[in-house]
Amino acid sequence: MKALVVIPARGGSKGIPKKNIKPLNGKPLISYTIESALQLFSKEDICISTDCDDIAFESEKSGLDIHFKRPTELATDTAGTHEVLLHAINFYEEKGNFYDTLVLLQPTSPFRKSKHIKEALELYNSDVDMVVSVKESKSNPYYNLFEEEQGLLKKSKDGHYTRRQDIPKVYEYNGAIYIINIRSLKKGKISAFNKVKKYVMDEISSMDLDNHLDWKICELLIKDEIN
Questions:
Q1: How far apart are CA 92 and CA 178, in angstroms?
Q2: Which entry of 31, 101, 138, 207 is 20 to 30 Å from 46 by CA?
Q3: Which domain of life does the UniProt lineage start with (predicted)?
Q4: 3 state SS of 173
């Protein structure tokens, strides 16, 4: 398996301004992901896709080379991940570097460690479209998820269960790890993949920083981890 690691980090962030380089316990948020990636992959195979000079600077301080700057049209709120990933793949292919697998690591998952990436990689093979990290969802369509029909709520999925522990488990993507078959990615978007395997992570390792509350919780967890 020849893998390209892509860490997408655009400059704009509404929930937490300058989130990707905001200091978390003394170092930029993106550094946590870069450090995990460098424990498993050569820096030549790690790509920071960014439109922001400050993010590029901090990434270089963490030991990476910045091979290109992401085009402005791929750094807007409406730009899709699919297009961003294809742009990165095309850049390397034009340089004569061809990969069969893409490892997408979002910088908003500081508790995702190299061991998690390694374990997810062990689940991957070229017969699937993707291995994706998930966590068990507290919300369940058989139990506490509802849809509205004619002004009334009904359970999202029918089931005759009397105990919560008997209900089928459901999972949600936690945004930490995507191991993607590049052949599949070139055919269609991640949301259209049919052959997807899960890699389950715990609640803390799945922490994804989206807003100020997430950030505060993360700071407390890191302090507790250190102490």
A1: 19
A2: 207
A3: Bacteria
A4: strand
Q: How far apart, in whole angstroms, are the C-alpha atoms of residue 151 and residue 63?
A: 56
Q: For residue 172, what are its two tokens?
A: 């949600």
Q: How far apart are CA 58 and CA 56, in angstroms?
A: 6
CATH number of 3-136+170-226: 3.90.550.10
Find, among 182, 192, 191, the residue nearest to 90 by Cα. Answer: 182
Q: Which of 167, 10, 23, 21 is nearest to 80 (CA)?
A: 10
Q: Are strands 27-28 and 23-24 parallel, antiparallel or unpaired?
A: antiparallel
DSSP, res 162: S
Structure tokens of 227? 């102490």
Per-residue pLDDT reduced to its tens digit, 88-125: 999 999 999 999 999 999 999 999 999 999 999 999 99
What's the CA gap between 62 and 9, in Å, rounded? 14
Burial 28-46 (b: 16+ CB within 10 A, else e): bbbbbbbebbbebbeeebb
Which amino acid type is present at position 221? L
